[in-house]
Amino acid sequence: MKRLFCLFSLILLSFSPAVFADDMPNIESFQQFASLIRWSGVLFSALTVCAAWILLRFIQSIVDGISSQFAQRRMLLQKLQSFFQFFIYMSTGIAVFMMSFRVDDRILALIGGTIAVSVGFALKDLAASFIAGLTVMIDRPFQVGDRVTFEGNYGDIITIGLRSVRMRTLNDDIITIPNNKFLSEVTVSGNYGALDMQVVIPFYISMDQDIRLARDLIQEAASSSRYIHLPKPVTVLVKQTITDNYLAIMLTCKAYVVDTKYEKLFETDITLRVMEEFARNGIRPPAIALKSADA
């Protein structure tokens, strides 16, 4: 095959020497590359790839069949399948390379340069996350157990590693965040190492209602909650506001929950108590006072 290729190149050069004079270095480079290919192994490489594909499909069918029969083993089987797939990919790639190329100093230099460039690009983000992890541990913008808000995600920090931080949301989802994200984004910590945390709950009533009575009812409901952290004060702020097309009085309850894990239970308990007291005392929600421009 190599001799036929060289003969064909010489014939072309003999017919058009002026045209191919400038392309001689490229032709020689291509000849050198062609000399590295083991043409007899290309067919076996194709067969190896087909065999690996069939094996992967067979494993997938086995995992699907067993998972449908034994649901409790599904997660374990999927983990084993992922590991086995990675092993097959790596083995097939190495086998195809060894069968298709003649390994010499040039090939080793090419592989070394490619791996060095690939590893450099891959480690760039890893190194940035590692340095950011050290910064997070030293600067401590949050701690393990803090309830934080980051990029629209809200939950508890469960681990702080050198590469990433893991957060458990209130929906029990686990979010993995690279450490370098914290160097450029704002992180809000609700409790910053403390067990208690302030909870803010807004209420809206009509303009003509008894505002002082509503404020007292909210204060009493919050103070008598089973989740209240009484060493810290309960505050109710009053403000006139426009919500959509409603002119209303907004009463904001600021109270501290005894433990961050009870935040939503605390908010629900206070809301139910306040709504019951509002209904018992005839305090009504806001009525429509403003109309939209299209109405």
TrEMBL record:
Keywords associated with the record: Cell inner membrane, Cell membrane, Ion channel, Ion transport, Membrane, Signal, Transmembrane, Transmembrane helix, Transport
Coarse class of the protein's main subcellular location: membrane
Membrane topology value: Multi-pass membrane protein
Domain Mechanosensitive ion channel MscS C-terminal: 199-284
Protein name, per record: Small-conductance mechanosensitive channel
GO CC annotations on file: plasma membrane
Location of this chain's protein in the cell: Cell inner membrane; Cell membrane
GO molecular function, one term: mechanosensitive monoatomic ion channel activity
Protein species of origin: Photobacterium angustum
TM region(s), chain numbering: 37-59, 80-101, 107-138
Family, similarity comment: Belongs to the MscS (TC 1.A.23) family.
Keyword Isomerase set for record: no
Signal sequence, start to end: 1-21
Pfam families for this protein: MS_channel_2nd, MS_channel_3rd
Function according to Swiss-Prot or TrEMBL: Mechanosensitive channel that participates in the regulation of osmotic pressure changes within the cell, opening in response to stretch forces in the membrane lipid bilayer, without the need for other proteins. Contributes to normal resistance to hypoosmotic shock. Forms an ion channel of 1.0 nanosiemens conductance with a slight preference for anions.
UniProt subunit comment: Homoheptamer.
Lineage start: Bacteria, Pseudomonadati, Pseudomonadota, Gammaproteobacteria, Vibrionales
UniProt domain Mechanosensitive ion channel MscS: residue ranges: 125-185
